[in-house]
# Entry
Amino acid sequence: MSLDKESVNWKAIFNPMSLVSILLGVICASIALEAFMLPNKFLDGGVTGIAIIVNLNYDVNLNLLLVLINLPFFFVAWKKIGKTFTVQSAFSVFLLTLVLHFLDVPAVTEDKVLIAVFGGVLMGVGIGLIIRGGGLIDGFEVITALFQKNSALSASEITIFLNSLIMLFAAWFFGIEAAMYSILTYFTAIKMTDYVVEGFEEYTALTIISKEDEKVKELIVKEFGKAISVYKGERGYLPETFHIHHPCDIIMTVVTRLEVHRMKLAIQQIDPKAFFYVQTIKEVKGGIIKQIGSKHN
# Structure
């Protein structure tokens, strides 16, 4: 199967499960903003945090800010990461602005701890569901991935550094207390995002057993730019046909949370009956690991 990196995979974009996941994620993120964060000047990190600061201080429309601030990040993603990923992310942001425009949710509580915790939980669940659908609502992750290539810092260290700057601005504009609660909101959202996507781990080992093993290997290495490990094994041994089995290559690769969804869809296009399973990994060193995206779209 040949996947052109210059084209948009519309089948992946309009996958029903992806659309449902993105829609649910956008609704959760919108409720977090409307019912918890905005009324109390609490921030999330990244583009959302910047947009809230500008919105609350200069009365610029939040929806407009979310689009304008994300645009340069998505332009970079279109050039460097993948067109399908960029289209899905742009669609997620558009959907977020649409829901925010029509959604009117009153503040749920005045307890600042509850606001920070549950606002972060809802925002994290929303972001996690959107990532599972193949998109993003925060272009900061794109920049983080690109900076990591030429930096000794890890992706998490770069993310924390950039968002620390945002929290300093929050302290300047809204006061130390609001900034402290915003930090609580932000870290709660991070943990919930990781949990929704893949537990508390960032990297994932994907193992595939397929009758089209050569095509799957070519897809992963040439289209996704990932290294693979190959084990010699046998497939078959089903309960009804235990005596039927065939030699095959068992393929294992390490991917990031943003690549799992797209890689699974691409493999299923090659072999709809392919068997694969996912394992979380606590630490990865060496080899070829990319934090976000790939040449594949």
